Amino acid sequence: MKPDKELLEELATTALDGAAESISPAIQARLRAARREAVELAEAGHRARWLRWAWALPAGGLVAATLAVMLITGVGFKTAPVSGIEDVDILAARQSPEFYQDDAGFYLWLDGQQRAG
């Protein structure tokens, strides 16, 4: 199978070389200029792509350092005291929540008495 592949490559090379020789010098010059311009743009784009991400290194380092300090010192991870216990008690009670709405003043007074005593 290798000889067939080599034969195909030879035929393609011969055909392409023959076609390239038949192109006028003016068109060849234009093709060379277009190729040069494309290569320059590709190289410039590669540099620009790198520069686009260059800011991420210091920013990423700053974020990593900040997170490390927060993890080590525990700053920002303190929890607030739980304040919804009364709501849980109401929901867990046998009475419906509407029961507590009938005389809200009494239950507020009762809550104040329990906190004071």
Helix % is over 70%
Average pLDDT: 78
Number of domains: 2
Overall geometry? elongated
N/C terminus separation: 98 Å
What's the total count of β strands? Answer: 0
Order of helices and strands: HHHHHH
Q: What can you see in these coordinates?
A:
The chain is mostly helical and 117 residues long. It has 2 domains: 2-73; 85-116, no CATH class. It has helices at 2-21, 25-53, 56-73, 85-92, 97-101, 104-116. The protein is elongated, with a radius of gyration of 39 Å. The termini are far apart.
Give the topology.
Layout: H1 2-21, H2 25-53, H3 56-73, H4 85-92, H5 97-101, H6 104-116
Task: Summarize the entry for a quick read.
This protein is mainly alpha-helical and 117 residues long.
Overview features:
117 residues; mainly alpha; 2 domains; 79% helix
